[in-house]
Amino acid sequence: MIRPILKYGAPELETPSEEITCFDDDLKELVRDMFETMYAAPGIGLAAPQIGINKRLAVIDLTSGQEKDGQLVLVNPSIVAEEGSQKEEEGCLSIPGFTAAVTRPRWVKVRAQNLDAQEFEIEGEDLLARAFCHEIDHLDGVLYIDRISPLKRDMIKRKIRKMMRNGEW
Ligand code: ZN
User: Fold this and answer.
1) 139 CA to middle of ligand 1, Å?
2) Cβ atoms of residues 99 and 89 within 8 Å
3) 44 CA distance to ligand 1 middle (Å)
4) What separation in Å is there between the alpha carbon of 137 and the centre of ligand 1?
């Protein structure tokens, strides 16, 4: 089921999410919905708070569903190591129509659990490292615009407020 994606301004997007302790069928269904919602958007990553659920869960697929083994599910993820830096344009399904250059580590190692509660580690570089950082930020209530220059951030927020006033957001 495709779920509505919350946009900037929704309090859930700026609320730190809770650890997941219950690995049941509801969680599996939520993950299915998140992939469906992400592919429909379309996007390459989606965190549970973006559909209004403040739980530490994110899905990533850099192939946008083009390759069968492209799906990554991260339950209770955290970054345990990082190296280097990269600065590239970044966007977010919850802030449609905007992008900005964000500095991120070039390489990260993430520790997370899978849908069977088993812990695993996964490494990513370049775009995958960026996706890991972006989605884990969501679980901490942090948006990419919190990581850009105040000038650029104010410009984006001003435009969004104008769109809100005009009923376009
Ligand atoms: Zn995002």
Assistant:
1) 10
2) yes
3) 10
4) 8
- Chain centroid to Cα 88, Å, comes to 16
CB 103 within 8 A of CB 85: yes
- Average pLDDT over the chain reads 97
Name the token pair of 89. Answer: 């344009």
CB atoms within 10 A of CB 85: 10
CA neighbor of 92 nearest in space, from 54, 46, 132: 46
Which residues are marked as active site?
135
C-alpha 54/C-alpha 49 separation (Å) is 5
Q: 15 falls in which pLDDT band (50, 70, 90)? A: very high
Task: Tell me the domain boundaries of the chain.
Answer: 11-165
Domain made up of 11-165: CATH architecture? Alpha-Beta Complex (3.90)
Q: Is the pLDDT of residue 66 over 90?
A: no
Tokens 């901490």 belong to: 140
Residue 64 clears pLDDT 90, i.e. is over it: no
pLDDT digits (tens, 9 = 90+) for 115-146: 999 999 999 999 999 999 999 999 999 999 99
In angstroms, the CA 17 to CA 162 distance is 29
